[in-house]
């Protein structure tokens, strides 16, 4: 049993027996749908309604997640990892969500999105230091990540000139979220790697349960809990938008976790970057913002970075995955020591 690849499914659709390209297509479709809806809802709430309560909205979203996971039939009896495995992961995950949503009060959505799009570089770098992974990437993958960063710089410089909603505070917040993101993907991959029986539902459930209490201190210290409660109480339709957004994001989250479990954190970061580019273009189309030549140059470099990373990666991603599988199974004697180093 230990030598077999764990059976994985996505909302009842079996993945394990399908070819890798079908697995990637199904998982990508799920997170594309979930996060495209999420992006439109976020920009509507923050930029159109001027409701900038990132911690509180993340808090509400967490309870929606727990309700949906319960409807999926998951219980704590199905857990295969101890609770303390998820403490560090939950802290950085909730911090990332709160800072990301909160940064929209100081940045317009496209600028925030482009900052987040560069997370593939810190994810790759951090993968070399996470216990249980110790990833090493070829030079062309780092070049592709650098192209993404240069494209971001061009885009944000242009955005600072055309957008009235761009400040240093927002840049600091989204940069901090970016650092946390570099830990999130690699910690998730490490947990899946060291215990292949871990399911996406367990990962999302435990991360949410452990992470929700961590959101209370920043909400209380900043006074956001009571301010957001009073504001949303006067505009109850905001909750409807938040619940709809959380339901869509839930689909995206489970799909992303499936990608992490099957393809790894770096490939997942690349895929989510491609999704951000699509969301960005939709943002300009739907909300009719000015798109300059400098914006286009930045987007072109980002596209070049994605293509450079994507094309070579898929020729040898499957053999690498197959070679790693037996090693993880044969070395399961040392998994307890590795698992402790995560906590």
Automatic annotation (TrEMBL):
Keyword annotations: Antiport, Membrane, Transmembrane, Transmembrane helix, Transport
Any one GO molecular-function label of the UniProt entry: antiporter activity
Organism the protein comes from: Musa troglodytarum
Skewed-composition ranges (Basic and acidic residues): 327-343
Name of this chain's protein: UAA transporter family
Taxonomic lineage of the native organism: Eukaryota, Viridiplantae, Streptophyta, Embryophyta, Tracheophyta
Annotated TM spans: 20-41, 53-74, 113-130, 142-160, 166-187, 259-286
Family from the record: Belongs to the nucleotide-sugar transporter family. UDP-galactose:UMP antiporter (TC 2.A.7.11) subfamily.
InterPro entries: EmrE-like, SCL35B1-4/HUT1
Broad class of the protein's primary localization: membrane
Coiled-coil zones: none
Membrane topology label: Multi-pass membrane protein
Subcellular location: Membrane
Record GO cellular component, one term: Golgi membrane
Pfam families, sorted: UAA
Segments for region (Disordered): 317-343
